[in-house]
Amino acid sequence: MAVVLGTCPSVGAAGFMQAGGHGPLTPALGLGVDHILQYELVTADGEIRTLNAVQDLDLFWAVCGGGLGSWGLITSIMIKAHPATRVSTVQFVIRPADGEKKTQRVINFIALVGRYQHGWVIKGIASSFVPDEENYLLNLYWPSNQGDSAVLVFVDELLSHVDEYTIVSFQTSMFASVTEAEEKVLGPFANRISPYGASMQMSSQLIPLSSLESARGVAEAIWAGLEGINAVLRKGGLPNAAPLIFGSMPGAHSVP
């Protein structure tokens, strides 16, 4: 069977659901929170409650709305399962051409991926993308009964930019199950880019709507935000960070 879970193997079921539940099967099957059938939790009065669509409905929807830890201690979650499906993956390592235009090239490449991400999501394809000025890591994953043609169109366009980008590595795989794909590709990739042991502080920003009207605008907003972060890191003698871009929900996709 297949269930909608996170990409990183260390993500717990409850914590995963608090943010809606984005994962490699989200484009094909929906958010993780949409698959919750039932919770069991202990409320502050010490009562053990069973929550579902017909019992304690108000509290069930409150917990599904992102308030897992706010309403009680979750002791179990029942999640809808789907028939087992094979999963296809593509892993790219792409290097920009040498020269003085690396910053411009990475912005252009983020915009290029951004133009395709909406279509990928509609086709059931999830993506994770880590670009810096030296290398771009792009992974795509999807249930094997859909999505292949959308990937080939992207590859064709990428090959038309041979003067700007070189495909250093292009690896395709097919796995019998989501679990196998998680163990052999998704999990190792998440472990590779996750800052385990680091001291982190999450923050959010309000981004003008004008920055989301085109893939190019999104790319420029991402890189401008990253430059602000890296300016602080460089002052402390630390290496530059790279953005981590997930494509699991529809987003800006119009051509500038």
From TrEMBL:
Keyword terms of this UniProt record: FAD, Flavoprotein, Oxidoreductase
Keyword NADP recorded: no
Claim: Flavoprotein is one of the keywords in the record: yes
GO molecular function: flavin adenine dinucleotide binding; oxidoreductase activity
Protein family membership: Belongs to the oxygen-dependent FAD-linked oxidoreductase family.
Protein name, UniProt field: Unplaced genomic scaffold PAXINscaffold_837, whole genome shotgun sequence
Organism: Paxillus involutus ATCC 200175
